[in-house]
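[step 3/7] inverse_fold.run input=structure_tokens len=336
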């Protein structure tokens, strides 16, 4: 059970953290962040409590209450999943932003290098015109010097671009890119689908372990209400000792001592244990318990199904009636 409790706590904590990432980003004011953070925690804890209550009411066969608890859980789960989607998406966007900033710097250098290439191409066209005009000494020489400066500037920009630190692509970003390429969709669409899937999976994972803990607690409570198993020790009846006759012999006189037979008194037979029906009748007649199923269950230490059968029999015999407010009234057993 320690493992189950650990997984449950970790999943609930992760769900709360992802919801906090979204709710805390709504407003920059610290007071509003505290309010929204508390709201996120209330939503998360209320969601799992509603799921636990759904299991409890379903176990008690209160299907109307179970439906209402499930509806309440569905509303809180939708809010929680939305918060988790926003939180995971925010964390993913933050990781993607670092890659985008670095890529924008590289793109800026590439644009400058491309602009220098265009300028060199224009200078070459102007040099051809100077050659056609036979003004090589005045025009072409100047253009060549300008091109040399531009090429040196281009080399400097390329060196600065190559010296930028390489930003390692995270596993999540790589997964999103792979999904986008395999599904032929945009990166944002693949990111949204992955975030929604992870949020729903996290919520169902936590709900599963909360339900598992509820089942374990219900099993323990039911086991404690049952009678403990006992092993009766079987004792063999002791045989009655045989009476011996002690004879003392002497040379002239013989004395014989007779021991009277002693018949043991018969032991009283043990009373047969009373049935649950008789125990309940005696307890209700003596006002030892109230005329409620809960009180009788605690007194007899039996399951609720057996108590339901007892009360059904009481109502058939007319010794118990049901009031309009669903409470039971004890009328007593007619004297025989």
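[step 3/7] decode complete -> sequence:
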């Amino acid at each position: 059970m320690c493992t189950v409790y650990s997984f449950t706590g970790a999943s609930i904590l992760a769900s709360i953290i992802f919801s906090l990432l979204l709710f805390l980003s709504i407003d920059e004011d610290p007071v509003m962040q505290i309010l929204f953070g508390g709201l996120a925690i209330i939503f998360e804890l209320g969601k799992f409590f509603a799921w636990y209550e759904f299991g409890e009411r379903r176990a008690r066969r209160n299907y109307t209450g179970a439906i209402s608890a499930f509806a309440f859980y569905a509303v809180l789960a939708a809010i929680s999943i939305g918060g988790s989607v926003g939180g995971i998406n925010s964390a993913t966007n933050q990781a993607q932003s670092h890659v985008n900033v670095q890529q924008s710097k590289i793109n800026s250098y590439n644009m400058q290098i491309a602009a220098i290439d265009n300028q060199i191409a224009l200078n070459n066209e102007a040099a051809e015109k100077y050659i056609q005009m036979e003004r090589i000494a005045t025009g072409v020489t100047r253009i060549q010097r300008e091109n040399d400066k531009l090429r040196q500037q281009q080399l400097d920009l390329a060196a600065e671009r190559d010296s930028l630190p390489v930003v390692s692509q995270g596993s999540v970003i790589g997964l999103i890119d792979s999904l986008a390429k395999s599904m032929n969709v945009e990166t944002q669409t693949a990111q949204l689908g992955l975030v929604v899937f992870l949020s729903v999976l996290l919520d169902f994972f936590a709900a599963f372990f909360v339900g598992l803990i509820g089942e374990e607690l219900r099993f323990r409570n039911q086991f404690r209400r049952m009678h403990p198993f006992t092993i009766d020790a079987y004792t063999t009846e002791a045989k009655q000792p045989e009476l011996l006759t002690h004879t003392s012999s002497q040379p002239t006189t013989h004395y014989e001592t007779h021991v009277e037979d002693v018949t043991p008194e018969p032991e009283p037979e043990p009373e047969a244990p009373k049935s649950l029906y008789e125990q309940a009748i005696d307890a209700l007649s003596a006002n030892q318990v109230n005329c409620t199923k809960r009180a009788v269950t605690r007194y007899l230490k039996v399951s609720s199904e057996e108590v339901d059968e007892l009360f059904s029999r009481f109502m058939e015999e007319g010794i118990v009636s049901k009031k309009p407010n669903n409470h039971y009234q004890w009328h007593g057993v007619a004297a025989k």
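[step 4/7] annotate
The chain has two domains: 2-223, 276-330.
The longest helix spans residues 63-132.
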